[in-house]
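Pinned message: reference record for Blast:Glucose-6-phosphatase 2
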Amino acid sequence: MCGIYSQALLTRLVFAVGLASTLNSFAKWYAPIAPSSQCKTHSTLVSHRILPEQRPLWLLREMYASSVRSPSPGVALESHPLSCETTAGMPCAHSMCFTVFTLTIWMFLSAHAHSGQRWLAGTVAYGLIFCMWLSRLYLATEFLHQCVLGTFIGIQAIGALQQNADYLWSRRRRWAVTGVLLLGGLAAAVYFAKLNLDVDPHWSVREAFKWCPDPSYMRHEASPIFYLVRDLGILMGIALASPLSNL
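Predicted structure (C-alpha cells):
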C-alpha cells in the first residue's frame, strides 16, 4: 500500500524497519541476562526481578511454581499462540519496529504538511504507539518496561538514520555486502563465545518449552536464530540493492 502511494516512502520503510528489526534481534542475541546457575551474581538476580528479560508468562509461572509467591492466584494464567513466543521480551520487537514504521510515515508526510497537520499526525502516531503497548500488555506477551524500551530504542534509531541518511544511502554495494557479512560473522562468534562462557544461547526457547502447556503454540520461525537469519537476509537484500540513492 505504501508503494502505491510513493516508491520513496516504500524504500524508506523497508530500509528503516529492516534495520530496526535487525537491531532488535542483535540486542536479544548479544545480551540475554540468562547465565548458568554457576555464573549468576547478586546484581544479575536483582536485574531479573526489577527489569526482567523474561516474558510475563514465563516469569509468573516460574515464581508461583517455585513458591516464591504465595498463595497462588485463584485465576489461572491462560496461554495462547501469541503468549508462547520463543524469544526474549526485552526490548519489545513489536514496539520497536512499529515505532520506526509509524514515525517514518509521519516524518515523510510532515514534509508536505503545515504545522497544524504535522501536530495532528504526530498525535495520531504516538497514540498508535501507545495502543501497541496496550495490546502487548493485554496479551501478556511483554512487560511495560520492555515496550517502553523498544519505543525508546526505535526513536533513537530513527533519529540516527535521519542524521546519517545521505551517507547510508550512498554506500556502494560491495561495502554494504561486506558489512552484512561481518555482522553474520560477529553473530556466529557470539554464539560460540556464549557456549565457552557456559551461557545458553537458546535459553528463551527452553523457557518457552518449559512454561507453555501446548508445544503446538510455538513456531520454529519465531526462534531467535531464525529471526537473526531472517533479518540478516533482509539486510543482504538491501545491500544488494545499494546504493539506495539510485532507486
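Pinned by admin. Summary line: The two ends are 18 Å apart (CA to CA).
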